[in-house]
Amino acid sequence: MDPVSAEPPSYLLAAQASSIVRFLYRRVREGEPDSMADLNRTLGALRRLSDDLAHLLPGLQEQLEESLLDGGIPRTGPTAEAWDTVAGVGLALAGARAAGLLMAQELQASQRLLGGMAAPLDG
User: N or C, which end of the chain has less CB nearby within 10 Å?
Assistant: First the structure.
C-alpha cells in the first residue's frame, strides 16, 4: 500500500467485505430471528451487494487486460498463451457476473414477496 495514499488496496476492501458477510452468516445461523422489517432490510442490502459485485467484475477484467498490454503480467510462454489465460479468466468472471445479477434479481423478488407478507391485510 502506498504510504501517502489513505485508500486501502482493492484486495483489502474485498477481504473486509467478505469478513462482514461471514459475520452476518454466523449471526443469522446462531442468533434470534430478526423482525420482518429487519429481514426485509437485510435482503435489500444483500441484493445491492450482489448487484454491486456483479458490476465490479467487468472492471477487474479490464484491469487484467490492461495489465497484460502494459507488460504488468509476467509471461513465461508465448503471448498467445497469456491472452488465452486472460480470456479464460474473463469467461469465468462473466459467468460470475451473470450469477451475481441473477442472485440480485432473486433477492429482489424475495424482498418483494416478504414485503407483501408484512403488509397489513385489507378487508
Answer: C
State how far the Cα of 68 lies from the Cα of 75, in Å rounded to an integer.
9
**Of the candidates 93, 112, 86, 17, the residue with the CA atom closest to the CA atom of residue 54:** 93
Confidence category of residue 122, pLDDT binned at 50, 70, 90: very low
70 phi and psi, to 5 degrees? -80, -5
Smallest Cα–Cα separation from 73: which of 60, 83, 58?
83
pLDDT of residue 119: 61
Domain boundaries, the chain: 10-118
Question: pLDDT tens, 43-91?
Answer: 999 999 999 999 999 999 999 999 888 888 776 777 778 888 889 999 9
